[in-house]
């Protein structure tokens, strides 16, 4: 897999080079330019995955660059960086489509977590840019019987301020549904602010949600608004809500009950006018039963439950989504006019899609890159599915069959036991479990897939 490309835009050469170097050390391919004009030239000449831009620059400033990027390459997330942060400026930036608003001097971990989140968001919604206008429901979500029922519930909930809880397997399009709900609501002119709860450890998640005052902790040299504050007048989307710790659950409950919050290091409560939408693939009822998720918070979130059906139950949508992804991704990859042949669509419909819409989108992008000729045929689909799924004759992600008495068998069982124990001690929080095991969160996710524990 190629490295993600990050473009750093800052007229202060020292700051730009330090930030670019930090990103390279973290494994990204980074490039620094000193002006908005140079940034647009770079975007026109190479594929860029994320832009990090200073706000105050001579000539084209960061806000102007943001507008140009959203117009020219709307799927590329833009993170704005400034030493002159203020709530109005941050709100303006989020409304204009910024993926994040960071303050100088920047914190290394916060920058890297923010870039990771931006990349994750980009991969999920590449087929529909965050600020694109909401279109007819068949184009946005699907046209199968299962999706019609889901869309009807979204339309019923949209005009209200009721909290919506989106349920369903990973990859079913819960964030697209949340954005659609926002677009259909009276708050559509306000910001849509997403927080991906599983991407951050507790200390960063809390500051991400609620912001902090100057001096709240070492390195807090200025006040920073949180995502709750930035969502004022709009919608706050809390993705993977089932992964938050008990400590954050308490503070989130107060936010939902009282419509107020307190910044880290603050002494006064701040009122907020926000519509809440949450999403999870977890069985929250079971988590309530075993004490890992607060019952009162569950009922506050579960006011309007909306289930996102898995793609295997949406056979009629496979062709619709595949053709849409193909048209858009072919344009982006210089293969305009590429289409699916009838047998290619039939091959897609025969697959069970354990990764749901996200898996379909990723496969279509691979097919766009590797398909021969002007049509994607069944042989192309079967080749790419086989290349990904076959590993010594077994499905991808499942553990290799091994004799129960071998050393490998004992190692696998020991790893499974250690991971289960860490997850239990961390009350299901995978970030905390990874920390207890002394491995990265990415390594833990890989191990869960490899050992069949997902």
TrEMBL record:
Domain Sigma-54 factor interaction: 140-369
InterPro entries, A to Z: AAA+_ATPase (IPR003593), AAA_lid_NorR (IPR058031), CheY-like_superfamily (IPR011006), Homeodomain-like_sf (IPR009057), HTH_Fis (IPR002197), P-loop_NTPase (IPR027417), Sig_transdc_resp-reg_receiver (IPR001789), Sigma_54_int (IPR002078)
GO biological process: phosphorelay signal transduction system; regulation of DNA-templated transcription
Chain spans, region Disordered: 385-404
PTM annotation (4-aspartylphosphate): residues: 54
Gene3D superfamilies the UniProt entry points to: 1.10.8.60, 3.40.50.2300, Homeodomain-like, P-loop containing nucleotide triphosphate hydrolases
SMART domains registered for this protein in UniProt: AAA (SM00382), REC (SM00448)
Leader sequence residues: none
Keywords attached to this entry: ATP-binding, DNA-binding, Nucleotide-binding, Phosphoprotein, Transcription, Transcription regulation, Two-component regulatory system
Domain Response regulatory: 5-119
Keyword Ribonucleoprotein part of the UniProt annotation: no
GO MF term list: ATP binding; sequence-specific DNA binding
UniProt protein name: Response regulator of zinc sigma-54-dependent two-component system
Organism: Sandaracinus amylolyticus
């Amino acid at each position: 897999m190629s490295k993600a490309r990050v473009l750093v835009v800052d007229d202060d050469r020292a700051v730009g080079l330090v930030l670019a170097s930090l990103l390279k050390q973290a494994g990204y391919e980074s490039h620094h330019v000193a002006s908005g004009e140079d940034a647009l030239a770079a975007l026109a000449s190479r594929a860029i995955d994320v832009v990090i831009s200073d706000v105050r620059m001579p000539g084209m400033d960061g806000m102007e660059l943001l507008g140009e990027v959203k117009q020219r390459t709307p799927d590329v997330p833009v993170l704005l960086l400034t030493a002159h942060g203020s709530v109005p400026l941050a709100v303006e930036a989020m409304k204009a489509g910024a993926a994040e608003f960071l303050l100088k001097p920047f914190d290394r971990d916060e920058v890297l977590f923010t870039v990771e989140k931006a990349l994750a968001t980009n991969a999920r919604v590449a087929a529909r840019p965050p600020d694109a206008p909401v279109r007819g429901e068949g184009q946005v979500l699907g046209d199968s019987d299962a999706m019609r029922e889901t869309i009807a519930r979204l339309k019923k909930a949209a005009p209200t301020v009721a909290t919506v809880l989106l349920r369903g397997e990973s990859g079913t399009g819960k964030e697209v549904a949340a954005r659609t709900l926002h677009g259909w609501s009276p708050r559509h002119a306000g910001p849509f602010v997403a927080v991906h709860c599983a991407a951050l450890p507790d200390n960063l998640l809390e500051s991400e949600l609620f912001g902090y005052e100057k001096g709240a902790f070492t390195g807090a040299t200025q006040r920073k608004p949180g995502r709750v504050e930035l969502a004022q007048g709009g919608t706050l989307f809390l993705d993977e809500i089932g992964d938050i710790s008990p400590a954050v659950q308490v503070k989130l409950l107060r936010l939902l009950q009282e419509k107020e919050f307190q910044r880290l290091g603050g002494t006064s409560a701040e009122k907020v006018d926000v519509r809440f939408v949450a999403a999870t693939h977890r069985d929250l009822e079971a988590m309530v039963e075993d004490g890992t998720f607060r019952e009162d918070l569950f009922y506050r979130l579960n006011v309007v439950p909306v289930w996102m059906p898995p793609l295997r139950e949406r056979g009629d949508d496979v062709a619709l989504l595949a053709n849409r992804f193909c048209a858009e991704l072919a344009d982006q990859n210089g293969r305009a006019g590429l289409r699916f042949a009838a047998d290619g669509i039939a091959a897609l419909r025969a697959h069970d899609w354990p990764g749901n819409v996200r898996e379909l989108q990723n496969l279509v992008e691979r097919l766009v890159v590797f398909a021969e000729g002007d049509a994607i045929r069944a042989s192309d689909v079967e080749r790419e599915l086989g290349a990904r799924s076959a590993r010594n004759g077994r499905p991808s992600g499942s553990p290799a069959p091994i004799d129960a008495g071998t050393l490998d068998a004992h190692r696998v069982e020991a790893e499974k036991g250690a991971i289960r124990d860490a997850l239990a001690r961390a009350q299901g929080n995978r970030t905390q479990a990874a920390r207890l095991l002394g491995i990265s969160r990415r390594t833990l996710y890989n191990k869960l897939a490899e050992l069949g524990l997902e």
